[in-house]
Amino acid sequence: MRAAVDVAAAEFGGLDILVNNAGVFPSGPLDEVTLEDVDRTLAIHARSVFIAAQTAAAHMTDGGRIINIGSCLIERLPGPGMTLYAMSKSALKGLTKGLARDLGPRGITAVVVDPGPTDTDMNPAEGPAADYLRGFIAVGHYGHAQDVAGMVAYPGRSWWSPRQRKLCPGGRRVRRVSPS
Fold first, then answer.
1. CB 87 within 8 A of CB 93
2. Separation in Å, CA 179 to CA 31, 161, 176
3. Any idea where the domains of the chain sit in the sequence?
4. CATH class of the domain at 2-168
5. pLDDT tens digits for range 101-120
6. How far apart are the first and last CA of the chain?
7. Model's pTM, two decimal places?
8. What are the record keywords, sorted (predicted)?
9. Angle between helices 48-59 and 83-103 (to 10 degrees)
10. CA–CA distance, 9 with 84 (Å, rounded to integer)
11. Which of 85, 132, 142, 154 is catalytic?
12. Is 154 one of the catalytic residues?
C-alpha cells in the first residue's frame, strides 16, 4: 500500500486527493467467523485504509481531501450474519474523525461516504439477496458506481467542514455529523 501511494505521488508530483475504496463482504453466523476472517477483513477495511491515508498525508498538498468509502450497514443491519462487516466498516468513522483532527490544521478534510446497496461484482443487483435488500431502499433499486462517484466528487471539490459523513443509501437519509 505504501509503495503504491508513494509511486502515485512521485508520478504526479504530490497528491491532492485520496479515495480509499476497498471491500470484502464476510457474512454468516457469528459462531462460524474465524480469526482468519477477522484478520483479513480488518486488514482490508481498516488497516489498509489507515496506511494509505498515513502515507498519502505525507505527500498531500495543504487543502487536500481524503475520502473513505464506508457502508450504510454501520447504521442499520437488515438481518443477522453481518457483524464482522459492520464492525470493520465502522472503523472508518473513527479513523476519519482522527484524520480530520490531525490534518485539519493543513486544511486537509476527511470524509466518509456510506453508500447503500450498490450494483457491483460483490453485491449484484440481481444477486441472491437483492430482492430482500431492495425492500430497505427508499427508491426501490440498487445504486450504481456513478451514484457513489457523484458523492465522492462533490465533497472532494468543495466541502468546508474538516470531517463529514455522507450516507447515500438510496433515499434513506443524508446528514452531517458533529465533529465530536
1. no
2. 36, 9, 9
3. 2-168
4. alpha beta
5. 999 999 998 988 888 888 88
6. 29
7. 0.82
8. Oxidoreductase
9. 20
10. 33
11. 85
12. no
